[in-house]
Amino acid sequence: MESPTDLVASLAALGRSMREKFDPQRFLEQFSATIQRLVPHDRLVVDHLDDDGRTFTVFAEHAAPALTFHEEHYTTTFSPAGRYVVADWAIRETFAGQPMRIDDFQTDPRFARPNTHEARVKAALRSGLVVPLASGGRVIGALVFTSLAAHAYTDAHLAAARQVADLVGPLIESTVLLHRERRRRRRLQAVQRLTRVLGASLNVREVFDRLAEEVRPVLDFDVMGVVLL
Description:
alpha+beta
């Protein structure tokens, strides 16, 4: 059992990160340094499960640049194309509530047929811990520790990782909800501006450039056109 002081320190480190501008590649920096003694790692990732339970995104990752794999799949980009399908991943059992200890990615049968992203992890790292993140009585994601060394983790490390996950899960979920609400407000503001643009003139050609700029935050696109039938 880890001391309450160690666990509170990990939560405090995560809280300090929330006071800064959110960056998925820096958010876990202080948290990672604080929990190194509890669970040593070379890479730390927080995955967030989507509400439907079928897809997930990466809330944050902390690692050396050579071990940063998820740039196009961050939660806060809110990109449908950036979602991973849970069923395609060996860690799907963690999203169902089961912790995982991987002593060696090279020999673990669960990673015998990795997907493209798992293959990158398997090629660069050797062992890992994957534990569920929960909030409000349901699994909302996974906390992933990985090491460059094989057989880096023991049952004691797994127990410590689960304690840390239980502590930070609600905070991670609150942060995700905060970013969703901020995005919703930005989209509503964009819609209000759109109404003013459309009301400024009946000649769409005169306002089309302005119209496109106001619509872009609401609907991501590269080209916009209007066709009359």
